[in-house]
């Protein structure tokens, strides 16, 4: 059963902060346990920008499955063959880049769900979630708990955000602020009015259907604006920031420095 995803969805149904990490530049098997022991709620393996092999991603998903810890994968695209391959690697959810219409989500559903609701042909390590392969088991123990987060990263996505948010496959909306700012012509000037208006539009669409918005990385500022589904940065940026702070404190113990390296915005 997709228990980690079920628990994550239950947490998202509350107003508690849900906090995770993205692995873009570097991911390794022990990272799952590090995330779990540190109190994080989920890990996203970024296959869109990361240069990870299918074997490594599958291994990370397997460890998440055995540890009962949610591991999601950001796919390269929404193309059916990409979705099918990603599902076979065994994540408990997918983060979809640059979704611009509900029609794209219909295609994702075709690739991710079993007939008659979709056309998935399951295989690989993803099958190990199942106790048997009866359709009712797929539907009630896997598909109903699958986490799907479409990222809004363009003006067209903002224009169609109401229908995207309302799609039954969608667990939460995701922000891709850097790419969105580029598409809006204000890359990277997040204080621009048109950018802030787009973010407000995305959050309003999610709020209207009772869903959360996945956002990062300035957690304090996002919490102040009512966001609770958060990610705190990439594994490498968090590590670099922590090391920088430790080095500064050792070299100048009298100085109360809270300086951190700037974390790049999500793509």
Task: Provide the descriptors you would attach to this structure in a database record.
267 residues, alpha/beta, eight-stranded parallel β-barrel, 12 helices, single chain
Description:
The chain has helices spanning 3-12, 30-37, 54-67, 80-89, 102-112, 135-142, 155-159, 161-166, 177-184, 193-208, 219-224, 235-251, and strands at 18-23, 42-46, 71-74, 93-96, 147-152, 173-175, 213-216, 229-234. It has 267 residues and is an alpha/beta fold. The protein has an eight-stranded parallel β-barrel, surrounded by five helices. The chain contains twelve helices and eight strands. It is globular. It has a single domain, classed as Alpha-Beta Barrel (TIM Barrel). Helix 4 packs across helix 5 (102-112).
* Uncertain spans: none
The rough form would be described as: globular
The tally of structural domains comes to 1
Helix/strand order, N-terminal first: HEHEHEHEHHEHHEHHEHEH
Q: How many β-strands, per DSSP?
A: 8
As a percent range, the share of strand residues is: 5-15%
CATH topology: TIM Barrel
Mean pLDDT: 95
Lay out the secondary structure.
Blueprint: H1 3-12, E1 18-23, H2 30-37, E2 42-46, H3 54-67, E3 71-74, H4 80-89, E4 93-96, H5 102-112, H6 135-142, E5 147-152, H7 155-159, H8 161-166, E6 173-175, H9 177-184, H10 193-208, E7 213-216, H11 219-224, E8 229-234, H12 235-251
Parallel strand pairs: 1-2, 1-8, 2-3, 3-4, 4-5, 5-6, 6-7, 7-8
């Amino acid at each position: 059963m997709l228990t980690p995803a079920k628990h994550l969805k239950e947490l998202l149904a509350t107003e508690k902060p849900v906090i995770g990490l993205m692995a873009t530049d570097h991911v390794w098997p022990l990272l799952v346990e590090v995330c779990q022991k540190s109190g994080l709620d989920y890990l996203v393996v970024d296959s869109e920008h990361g240069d990870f092999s299918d074997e490594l991603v599958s291994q990370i998903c397997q460890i998440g499955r055995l540890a009962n810890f949610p591991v999601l994968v950001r796919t390269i695209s929404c193309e059916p063959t990409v979705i099918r391959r990603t599902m076979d690697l065994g994540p408990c959810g997918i983060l979809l880049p640059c979704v611009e219409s509900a029609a794209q989500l219909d295609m994702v559903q075709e690739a991710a769900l079993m007939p008659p609701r979709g056309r998935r042909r399951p295989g690989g390590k993803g099958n190990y979630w199942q106790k048997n392969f009866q359709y009712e088991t797929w539907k009630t123990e896997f598909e109903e708990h699958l986490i799907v987060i479409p990222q809004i990263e363009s003006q067209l996505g903002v224009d169609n955000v109401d229908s995207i948010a309302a799609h039954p496959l969608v667990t939460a909306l995701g922000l891709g602020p850097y790419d969105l700012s580029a598409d809006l012509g204000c890359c990277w000037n997040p204080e621009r009015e048109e950018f802030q208006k787009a973010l407000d539009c995305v959050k309003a669409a999610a709020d209207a259907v009772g869903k959360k918005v996945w956002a990062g990385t300035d957690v304090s500022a996002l919490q102040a604006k009512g966001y609770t589904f958060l990610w705190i940065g990439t594994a490498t940026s968090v590590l670099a920031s922590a090391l920088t702070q430790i080095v500064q404190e050792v070299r100048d113990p009298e100085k109360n420095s809270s300086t951190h390296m700037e974390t790049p915005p999500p793509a």
